[in-house]
Amino acid sequence: GSAKLGGGKLGRGKKLEKDPALATAEAATNLMHNLEQIRLAQANAELKRFQLLRRLDSIKTRRNFELGESALSSLNGIRAYFHHCSDMIDGVTPKL
Predict the structure, then answer these.
(1) Rounded-to-integer distance, Cα 35 and Cα 41, Å
(2) At 31, is the secondary structure helix, strand, or coil?
(3) Where in the chain does DSSP place strands (E)?
(4) CA distance 83 to 90
(5) Torsions phi, psi for 80 (to 5 deg)
(6) Interatomic CA distance for residues 29 and 54, integer angstroms
(7) For residue 84, what pLDDT is reported?
(8) How crowded is the C-beta side of 77, counted as CA atoms within 13 Å?
(9) How many helical (H) and strand (E) elements, i.e. helices and strands, does the chain have?
(10) Which of 1, 28, 48, 77 lies 20 to 30 Å from 92, alpha-carbon distance?
(11) Where are any strands of DSSP class E within 1-89?
(12) pTM above 0.85, yes or no
């Protein structure tokens, strides 16, 4: 009777230990899952990087447009000032 109990305990102990093939398959599955998570994180990082670069490019373009618009507005103001001065001088100067 006690020999059977002892044999039964050894049998249960072997069932608790993992089969080497099962352990290898589980490790491979875990590695594949980790690799997939890394690839997903890299893809998300690339997407965020491209979104950031697109946003920076948009900001640079808008800044350049606003600088150009300000410069043209200033030049137009200077032109209007000199045109007004020219009109005033034409009224004062004698004509032949």
Answers:
(1) 10
(2) helix
(3) none
(4) 11
(5) -65, -40
(6) 37
(7) 93
(8) 6
(9) 2, 0
(10) 77
(11) none
(12) no
